[in-house]
Amino acid sequence: MPHRRFPWARHAVLVLVSLVMLVPFYWVAKTAVTNENIYAWPPRLLPESPHLFNFVDVWYLIAFPRYLLNSVIVSLLAVIGNVVLNALAGYALTRHFPAKRLVILLLLSCMLIPFQATIIPAYLITARLGLLNTHLGLALPLLSTIICIFIYKAAFEAVPRSLVDAARMDGLSEWRIITHVMLPLSKPAIATNVILAFIWSWNSFLWPLIITRDPQMQTLPLGLARFLSYMEDTTGALYAFVVMVLLPGIFVFLMAQKEFIQGLTKGATKG
């Protein structure tokens, strides 16, 4: 086989593809530190006279620290909710109970309904709970997601049944089985829940736009619109804002990318 005879060729192709995919990220970062005209021809590959003025503008022209704090709090609430609630739901789906197949089909059918179609009842429920303009209200629709429930379900079903039976014979309750047996053996599923919940809540725009009235409760995606209203030449400033918003998500993904990939493929590699 050619790829076995020349193993370096496969790595060279992968490196080349990776570099091509990283070009947009590099271009955004380069424009953020140079304010170059993105339509200039021929384009410059290396930045000329880089500076950090755009990042300073982003930090001081709007209440960026406040928006950042709101996004961090909302994302932490969403991550905690997904890790805990999805684990409980995923473990329940591994148990045998009446109408289990119907519950699974109902959850799968709910995945076909876009959030925009349920946003009015979600708003009414949040208002009735008195959670408008609160961090918990911002995180409420993202505290549990169906796809992450099934990721937990696949991970829990991969745990040998003998371990669960042995734990039950030792007198462990169902709660302790989840916390002492299932979760320690399902770290890829936990990492997948953390990454997906963080990215979805971090980038959420429509829901915060609807339920927030106080500018002090707005998150980073909403802060972007306010920031652009202050800037005349928006290209470099916009890209600087994008870089500052992207970095936390990239950092979280890189910290757990191996477990994330394992979590997504756990059910496919079972057995």
Query: Helix/strand-derived class?
Result: mainly alpha
Q: What CATH architecture of the domain at 64-221 and 251-265 would you give? A: Orthogonal Bundle
Under CATH, the topology of the domain at 64-221 and 251-265 is which? Answer: MetI-like fold
Number of alpha- plus pi-helical segments: 15
Compute the separation of the termini in Å.
Answer: 28 Å
Sequence stretches where pLDDT stays below 50 over 5 or more residues: none
Number of DSSP E strands: 0
CATH superfamily of the domain at 64-221 and 251-265: MetI-like
Radius of gyration: 23 Å
Q: Which range best describes the helical content: under 10%, 10-25%, 25-40%, 40-55%, 55-70% or over 70%?
A: over 70%
Strand content: under 5%
Text of the CATH class of the domain at 64-221 and 251-265:
Mainly Alpha
Q: Name the overall outline.
A: globular
Biggest sheet descriptor: none
- Please state the average pLDDT score: 84
- Listing every helix as H and every strand as E from the N terminus to the C terminus, the arrangement reads HHHHHHHHHHHHHHH
Feature tags:
single chain; 271 residues; mainly alpha; MetI-like fold; 0% strand
Sequence-ordered SSE layout with sheet pairings:
Layout: H1 2-5, H2 7-34, H3 53-61, H4 64-94, H5 100-110, H6 119-128, H7 135-139, H8 146-157, H9 161-169, H10 174-182, H11 187-202, H12 206-211, H13 220-228, H14 234-255, H15 257-265
